Amino acid sequence: MPLPAPLVDALTDHGLSPQAHAPLQRRTWWQVGGPAECFLRVGNLEDLRAVARLCSTHKAPVFVLGNGTNLLISDRGIQGVVIQLTRDLAKADPLPADPTVIQAGAGTKLAVLLKKALRHGWTGLEVFAGIPGSVGGAVRMNAGARLGETREVLHEVDVVLPDGSLRTLPAKDLNMAYRHSDLPRGAIVATARFALRPGDPQTMRDQVQAHLDHRARTQPLDQPSCGSTFRNPPGDYAGRLIEASGLKGYRVGDAQVSEKHANFIVNLGGATADEVRAVIEHVQHTVKAQHGVHLEREVHFAGDWSHWPLAGA
Q1: pLDDT tens, 101-111?
Q2: Which pLDDT does position 313 carry in this prediction?
Q3: Residues catalogued as catalytic
Q4: Coil, strand or helix: which one is 159?
Q5: Using N-to-C axis directions, what is the helix angle for 5-13 and 45-57, rounded to 10°?
């Protein structure tokens, strides 16, 4: 069902530039997936609130696309309005009133934030080392790696609700846990504020470099993937279970369980989203059968999967 023409007109009248049937494949790390029914770049908070309000009024679904990691978009694409946050919503600076707090737009890439932290000696943000996502995704998923998790440095977030209203939420109210945070239904993360921690900047730089070196040695960074595909089950590692199940190198079409790190599924060059999902589900079924462990996905499925057997499972 196409977007209502009045919504497209309203977005255009607001000074935005909606793009119909915009390709998303190259905007994701897996480099698979179909188009957005409508794609918008939104560069400031006022416009983001207007888009949320207009889409709610016209009952059009909204999907915020960050850095395209931990995301598998259906080959059929995404219906509704896909938003990418840019300009004011993709930069990071200390608060003028408190330089120990860094404010970052949700569209800020974590790699960019980390480089700025290393340059200015902002200790605490090393928790984002090696994480290829964006600030909004980090908040929503409590992103983390070997050096820590988002919840350790998050102070508060500003979110835009479906009616266009703005709400500030302290980090303690988000009930953040492993790859989880409680955000209001339909909320769009607009900005986040991080409290820096006391520490030695050179020690931070050394820790980050050691982590990035380890990542380069152990992960298939030269091939398209979403990063870690599955969450680590309590007391174990998803990669160990997958490798122990004999699944390294398993492939469907051009989607393959990495031979370098079993918790990565890579695109060998011409994979489809259907092929990637087929590998994901085969891994889950095999590990469950052999080890009695259900691997929960870290990756999110987005778009129209109505054609898939047991869609929505």
Answers
A1: 999 999 999 99
A2: 44
A3: 179, 228, 298
A4: strand
A5: 160
